[in-house]
Amino acid sequence: MISFDLLVAICLVYVVFLFGVAFWAERRAARGRGGWLRSPMIYTLSLSVYCTAWTFYGAVGYAARSGLEFVTIYLGPTLVFIGWWWTLRKLVRIGRTQRITSIADLISSRYGKSNTLGVIVTLIAVVGTTPYIALQLQSVTLSFAVFAPGGVGPWLASDLNSASLTVAVGLALFTVLFGTRNLDANERHHGVVTAIAVEAVVKLVALLAVGIFVVWGIAGGAAAALARIDASALAGMPIQPGRWAGLTFLAAAAILTLPRMFQVLVVENEDERHLATASWAFPAYLFLMSLFVVPIAVIGLDEMPPGANPDLFVLTVPLAHGHDGLATLAFLGGFSSATSMVIVAAIALSTMVSNHIVMPLFLNLSRHGATMSGDVRKLVLRSRRLSIAGVLLLGYLYYRLTGGSEALAAIGLIAFAGVAQVLPALLGAILWRGATRKGAIAGLLAGFFVWAYTLFLPSFGEGAIMGATLLAEGPGGIGWLRPQALFGLDGMDPLVHAVVFSIFANVLAFVTVSLFDFPSPMERLQGAQFVNVFDHSSAGQGWSQGRAEAEDLLLMTQRILGAEDAQRLFQRAAAGQGRQGYLPEITPEFLQQLERVLAGSVGAATAHAMVGQIVGRSSVSVEDLMAVADETAQMMEYSSQLEAKSEELARTARQLREANEKLTELSVQKDAFLSQISHELRTPMTSIRAFSEILMEGADLSPQELGKYARIIHEESLRLTRLLDDLLDLSVLENGQVTLNLQPVDLHDLIERALAATARLQGGHALRITRDPAAERVQIVTDGDRLSQVFINLISNAQKYCDASAPELRISVRSTAEGVAVDFTDNGSGIPQKSQAIIFEKFARLSDPRSAGGAGLGLAICREIMLRLGGSIVYRDGRPGAAFRLTLPREMAAAA
Amino acid sequence: MARAPAFPDPEGYRRRRLMDLARLLPLLGLCLFLLPVLDADDGLGAGLLIYLFAAWFGLIATAALLARRLCAASAPAPDPAKPGAEAGGQEGAE
Hints:
heterodimer; A: 7 strands; 69% helix
């Protein structure tokens, strides 16, 4: 037999080799050269952590005791994997898009980031996994004991204990070294996964080698082996239908809910397409693992002395035939199974414990903690390491407490049933949008409680935790509450009984509470994101090379900062890393710096989401989105304020410009007015001066001449007076200093008055007036004197300027909705189009001033009066003669 | 959401039937694996052992072919899955 020392040496070399593999894989991954390390085969092999030492050694023992039943442990996962299109695909997609770090994280973030759920799932996982870790320690220790030096007899308990402690410490060291090297956002551990893949190959090869040796080496061929099976004690061992179906279900549930399986299946997944390969390759692995179990069990039962532990046939059968090498290989296989399970379970559990228990506690205790990211990183790593040590310590203590009893061997299935309680909440999380947080909590607690009551606590044996009377008669003598025969169902296998009742209670509570609960907005958002994950995400290929990432980061940064700034930033970063002229390495420091710079432009949450999108390949979580929306809202607010301000500025500038134009115009008008007025004053003054000079000098003037000259002087001074009167009137009107004398007036009377006043002035032309007296009978409230002034002006204009041979003026009054319209239309040639624009201006005279005798202020005054009266005067184009329309309100507003 | 055409091209039709097969395969497996229960009293024997492993192997081989075909078929399309058909118990929309 191989010496124990040599075995220990081989074992140490193997461990060192594993360390080396893990280290090398980490280095490769860190350099961004994943290559075949990221292949679907490595992924499939890493899934083999499902096959622990319990299955490596225990399957043969199980077969020796219960026949074919062991195979259900592999059939359940097979069904789940070939049915990957149903659940696994979705689970992996959700895990990738939501940056899920553990099963507790998945459940908690689906149900509205509820940390209560995270804690519950973590506790269930710890309770379910600790015995399992103890089981691994036991199997490694027992397998060491098989090789114990024959001279000194079987190992004492102290030897076993020290061996298991050594193993536990070694495993803790390995896990801390490779499981918490870095705090990667996506929680992938290339080193660990690669080492586990190597171990998977070792255990498969070991079991196959032992199987081949047994079938062809001992039994003498496949046909002979089958014949021996038929002839063995196992032949005809009946299948228990309840256990068969129940265990298949349990194993199927376990592959989804075991924390270590979730870790390798979802968290460590690199590429969704790997799952397609694993969908058949992993069942194939399980197939090969169980192919030789029955032959080994049968041969072991035949060949080994009665009373030999069937759990160790894999080791003892080759040893009994003197095949030390084969036995050593088998030992390494078992050692691999145990260590890989413990390492992955410890990583998964420590992530959960640290994220859902330690960190929330710490952050609650020290409120100031989360401000500096560097601090938190260190803190998280430390809490992970402590959690790993704690998990392994728990396993070791459990092992010491139960002392390698038979109870420990049965604990595997009990643990399966415990973690299976997460299944309803998990399936509800990804398939049912109506599942709520309270429903999940109710289901988990109900299922966990029933499981503990019917299976876990009784498993410690009578009198350990539950008394014999409690087990036999139920609590307080209530028979239908007996832990292992709820509702009097005592004909069932205890395990099936517990599974049926715990899952039933779980689903019932989960569905009922969910149906009557109303989820929070966060839950509904997350629910939609999880259940409809295929709507919200694409399988899009990620970046396999760091180089591509740097380029994409640069492109994105250019879009935000502009090309020059972005390139300067990247060049500086590259120079800082000693890589002048190249793109910088994507180090966490660089990403942090980049995020900070980008945050200055787009806000911290947006920057984080953008960088995460490119580097992490993960989608943006709801919280991120909310933060982004917040920032965007702030920015929009700010920019809308800016916009309002700039609009106001533009308006003010326009007003200023308009005012300036008006001022310029006014200045021009004033100049024109001054020159006009001086001209207007000058003309009569010149003639007055000339004639008065004639009168002063000429004593020899005839009385007719005297009279004539005096009349001219008189007329001219009258003209001056009229001009000055008009100017005064206009200035009063324009300055708004006029006082209006409002009273009810009759339009007919006003027109009569105006006509009477103009009849006196009538010169040579006889103007015929056409009127409709009936329509003129309109009462309005206005200033009658001012209005008749306008009428007079218009009528006298018609007298002066109407050039028809038989001049005629039509005055028509029309009532409109707004008030009254009075039209003055003559039958002359009208006003040419080009002059229409200026007729209301001051001193606008179209014909020779002499002939008209006015100063050109009439229409300007009319316009001012109409404005004061709240109406208007317009020239109506397109009529045969000159046509003016006055519009007046019926009742002038008092304010005017 | 744009609805898929009622009568997709033959390629799309084939892909959907592949997905159907992917969904049905575990049910077939379940039936095959539960079959021994019907004759539970016969118990373990070479015949049962051979049946079980043969059925298992057949499932694995079918799954392997299916995975390969599915990957090849879905590689060009962004995502062939229609979430509505994904899960029976799921709500359409809230």
